[in-house]
Design brief:
Length: 117
């Protein structure tokens, strides 16, 4: 590749904006899931994931999903990072991991509750 004819942007672009987008998304996902967990443990009759609009649309789950994904969107917008195929796959992989983790934590809570009875 000829360095003199290549665009400057090609060499100045690094993986750092991708890293900040992924870290921001992981942070908001962790905070959101921790908030849902805390609300489930410390409140009575308040389960945001059980909110439905017109008994069909899972509004609570949509709110939680938007809150969890907001870090990816805001960091991408602030850094001017385009969502490439590899970044999208990384986000999908991390969000799948967050979902599996949330399900496992819920499973452990149920099992601990059954073992204490």
């Amino acid at each position: 590749m000829d360095f003199e004819s290549a665009p400057i942007e090609e060499f100045s672009r690094s993986g750092k904006p991708y890293f900040s987008v992924l870290v921001s998304g992981l942070f908001t996902s962790a905070v959101t899931l921790a908030g849902v967990y805390w609300l489930g443990k410390n409140t009575d009759d308040f389960h945001i994931m059980g909110w439905y609009a017109n008994y069909i649309i899972p509004a609570g789950a949509m709110i939680v999903g938007i809150a969890a994904a907001s870090g990816y969107a805001v960091a991408s917008w602030l850094t001017g990072t385009r969502i490439s195929r590899s970044l999208l796959l990384a986000v999908l992989f991390l969000q799948t991991g967050a979902y599996v983790t949330a399900e496992y934590v819920e499973y452990r809570d149920v099992m601990d509750g059954l073992n204490q009875q």
